[in-house]
Specification:
Elements (H helix, E strand, L loop, with lengths): L1 H21 L6 E6 L6 E5 L9 E8 L5 E7 L3 E3 L10 E10 L2 E2 L3 E7 H4 L6 E7 L2 E7 L8 H4 L4 E8 L7 E6 L3 E4 L7 E9 L10 E6 L7 H24 L1 H8 L7 H7 L16 E7 L6 E7 L11
Antiparallel strand pairs: 1-2, 2-5, 3-4, 3-6, 6-7, 6-8, 9-10, 10-13, 11-12, 11-14, 14-15, 16-17
Length: about 325
Amino acid sequence: MAASVCAFILALYALCGSAAGSGGLSAPTNVRLTSYNMDLVLRWDPPEGTTDVLTYTAAYRSSATGYKNVCTNTSALECDFTSSLSTVYGSYTGRVRAHRGAENSSWVESNLMIMDKQTFIGPPSVTLHVTGTSLEVSIKDPVFKYSELREVYTLATYNITYWKSSPKEEVKTVSGMMQDRVVLSDLEPMSEYCVQVQIIANLETGPSNYSVVCEHTGDVDAAPWVAAVVAFVVMAAVVALVVTLVVYWTRISKFLCPEVVLPPHFKESLLPANPSIYLVSPISEHCDQVSIIADHRTEEEEEGGCSTQPDTSQEGG
């Protein structure tokens, strides 16, 4: 009897303590743990009937560790755990509680998430390259928040579906492709085709979202050997031209820039018979004494002068 009374008192104390701890604040609702392209995000809705401004604390735990607080006193309605993860493998659970001043709500746990089996994979990026009546499909995997698609799903494949858009013809599918480049050939020229690509990661995850891209085909394909022959001829011509220039450069340069040589008779007519006339020698001046005699013979004055004539003497009378 005493044991029953003690158990009742302890249970009542626990309930009262829980009510005091929560302070009457309702807990968040619709708590769910999601994963898109290998991220891990906890999302929730505010407590029902609450219009006050609340803050929240969110935490997660793995199958090997206890709870770890990641977002503390945040006003957002989500918390991204991705950067805190050490691996994408294993199972994870999240939890959140609300705060209003000193009041705290109770914790609310989320669903269990196994990331490598339950993550939702987004659509791949698809580009179409036109070559005549063929379409080359180039596929790029979506960017994962943690790790890469081929590291987590080493055997992932692509499902490629294509059809002529107008008028829509029978849909054709190429399944189980691991190459990121696939050529769709034997298409009708000058027609629009649409291509849809999905990623098949594994049986648990299921197919990804799909991408749809449309493109027009070109004219009839040119034979591949024609392009090869044209390229070979062009390369051979370039090599032959370079070799010719190197071997016969001297002759080519003389042909393009010949030396100017005057004929002998031109030289004879241009040069004088006595080349010495072009020699410059100083001319010497000859100076003679000149005597000037006055008419009255009373004065005689001699002056020095220069003349090209020989000396003469004259007497009056």
